[in-house]
Design a protein that fits this description.
By secondary structure, the protein is an alpha+beta fold. The chain is built from 7 helices and 15 strands. It has helices at 41-57, 78-85, 141-150, 189-192, 217-224, 268-274, 284-293; strands spanning 65-74, 92-97, 106-112, 115-120, 131-138, 167-172, 178-183, 207-214, 231-236, 245-249, 256-261, 276-280, 303-304, 310-315, 321-325. A hairpin with a 5-residue loop joins β13 and β14.
Length: 351
């Protein structure tokens, strides 16, 4: 998606929109001659400029984006999905959610009170992309909508409560992925379930990141980094000079999105690898033993990846990947420094 100007005059994603529009002209504020009063006109002029600048950026502040809220995927059988997401991964099916872009209900498997894997049994063919959307939590969905609109991102005309009782909206990123921003409200389906359906058999209680296919990292950066404020954690690839995995942390938390850089068109099974989510663990070997005891044999045993972290890969019947990760590297990462500046989770705990 190149830098274009639409019929509405809005800019595309290739570069961040300037803080001041080209139509805005700031003239030097008039400062009366105050020498007779003993005042320094240069000081007054500076103060006036500061006031003008403060007024110009008022309303441009981005609301907080604090972490991953959800990932929604398609499957061809809800029964098979339950065998994996509950039977293997151990998440309780807490409730059903609705999405205007999806026919019927989505089964909502609960990672914790603020993070969910949502599954829709609407996969019709092997060639269809399994990913429906990724979601991030914000503290103010309406203000975030306004912020994105001011940056030239196409957004809904207004935001009311969604079918689940929250304030949320969806935009498209430069690669066409649906990205939801949700503000949990009292009385919503999720809020009413706080403290419930936190299954003891979960192999993890925190979603660290979501991964999506990206064709051009520079265009993705124009949206996620330049507009939304995501920050680099690490980038690497199968060789030291190829950056195919780029981790960008949310601006106000410690979760991240991973750019899975792939220019060529992937197969459905490859898309399942690229479009994934990762769960945190402190003991990946124990997770491996647990899922084997539950009747699931991972394709490979746990291994240390190029980023120096222990990983384990699990897949549902339709190839969507669940990655298990020990966040702290045990070896020096390849390719670039790990800039992880982990903050406290939304509940105040540390990962």
């Amino acid at each position: 998606m190149g830098l274009t100007e639409s019929a509405t005059g809005r800019l595309g994603y290739d570069s961040p929109v300037s803080l001041f529009s080209s139509a805005t002209i700031f003239r030097e504020p008039y400062v009366p001659d105050s020498r007779q009063g003993g005042r320094n006109p240069n000081v007054l002029r500076t103060l006036c400029w500061l006031v003008v600048f403060a007024l110009s950026i008022h309303g441009a502040d981005r609301p907080r984006i604090v972490g991953i809220a959800n990932i929604a995927v398609k499957v061809d059988s809800l029964d098979e999905a339950r065998k994996f997401y509950t039977g293997v991964v151990g998440m309780a099916e807490a409730f059903a959610t609705k999405d205007p872009a999806v026919a019927g209900d989505l089964a909502c498997f609960k990672v914790n009170d603020r993070q969910f894997v949502e599954v829709s049994p609407t996969l019709k063919s092997e060639s269809e992309d399994r990913l429906i959307r990724i979601g991030f939590e914000t503290n103010d969905a309406r203000k975030l909508r306004d912020y994105l609109a001011a940056k030239g991102v196409p957004v809904p005309a207004r935001i009311d409560k969604d079918p689940n009782g929250n304030r949320s909206f969806v935009v498209k990123d430069p690669d066409g992925h649906s990205v939801q921003f949700v503000q949990y409200l009292p009385g919503s389906i999720q809020s009413r379930d706080f403290g419930k359906h936190l299954a003891a058999m979960r192999i993890s209680d925190h979603m660290l990141h979501v991964g999506v296919r990206v064709v051009d990292p520079a265009k993705a950066d124009a949206f996620y980094k330049d507009i939304l404020g995501f920050r680099l954690q690490w980038k690497g690839g199968p060789t030291d000079n190829r950056f195919e995995w780029i981790s960008m942390m949310v601006p106000d938390g410690s979760d991240w999105i991973e750019y899975m850089v792939r220019e060529t068109t992937p197969t459905p099974q490859q898309l399942g690898v690229l479009h994934h989510y990762a769960l945190s663990t402190m003991d990946v070997q124990q997770v491996y033993k647990t899922v084997v005891e539950r009747g699931y044999k991972p394709p490979r045993e746990p291994a240390i990846a190029r980023d120096g972290r222990w990983l384990l890969q699990l897949y549902d019947k339709n190839f969507t990947r669940t990655e298990m990760m020990i966040r702290k590297p045990v070896e020096t990462p390849c390719c670039s420094p790990n800039l992880d500046d982990i903050k406290a989770n939304r509940d105040g705990s540390k990962q």
